[in-house]
Design goal:
Shape: globular
Helix content: 25-40%
Number of strands: 5
Strand content: 15-25%
Distance between the termini: 10 Å
Oligomer: single chain
CATH topology: Rossmann fold
Largest sheet: 5 strands, parallel
Radius of gyration: 15 Å
Number of helices: 6
């Protein structure tokens, strides 16, 4: 069965390492016949959540920026793959801000069930993304029907292109194929 897959890249570096992983995941999912949409947060205007909770009643955020469109895409996807560079052992601020702004999804009839997390870090420690994964799992814990299906870390990838021959590229492609 074909799934609607949304891949969100949160790096602000064009052709960054985590974006390369996201594109490989998307390629794998597309080649398996899934409906894949890729969204990059480069040049997106996403403001901070104000904590007003109006979204809980309105089912959309009152702040007018690009997050409302992205959150609607998240709501209608069956699978979401988030990609992030690892900064100070955590997900990018852009991704965290988007997750905060996805608060209208909490009371909604969201379709997503499976979440994937793809990351790249300059640090070569295989545990470099553990804190970021914990953060993603915290977001997922707010949604009863949702699970983290998999995560990949491209460790030791600092400069643009470092990820090219990293084993994480093959893993991201295969993970996309197994959606």
């Amino acid at each position: 069965m074909s799934a609607k897959v949304l891949v969100i890249s949160s790096t602000l570096r064009k052709d960054g390492n985590s974006e390369a992983l996201a594109l490989e995941f998307a390629r794998g999912a597309k080649e398996k016949g899934h409906d894949v949409e890729f969204v990059s947060l480069i040049d997106k205007d996403i403001k901070f959540c104000k904590g007003c909770l109006a979204c809980q009643k309105l089912q959309h955020c009152v702040i007018k920026d690009d997050s409302n469109e992205i959150v609607e895409k998240m709501k209608n996807a069956n699978v979401i793959a988030f990609a992030s560079p690892i900064y100070y052992y955590e997900m990018s601020g852009q991704l965290k801000t988007l997750l905060d702004r996805a608060n209208p999804l909490f009371p909604s009839d969201y379709k997503f069930r499976d979440i994937y997390f793809l990351s790249a870090a300059a640090d070569s420690d295989p545990k470099a993304a553990d804190i970021a994964i914990n953060g993603i799992q915290g977001w997922i814990a707010c949604f009863d029907k949702v699970q983290l299906k998999g995560s990949i870390l491209g460790a030791g990838a600092q400069d643009i292109g470092d990820i090219k021959n990293n084993p994480a590229m093959k893993k991201a492609y295969e993970m996309g194929q197994n959606v």
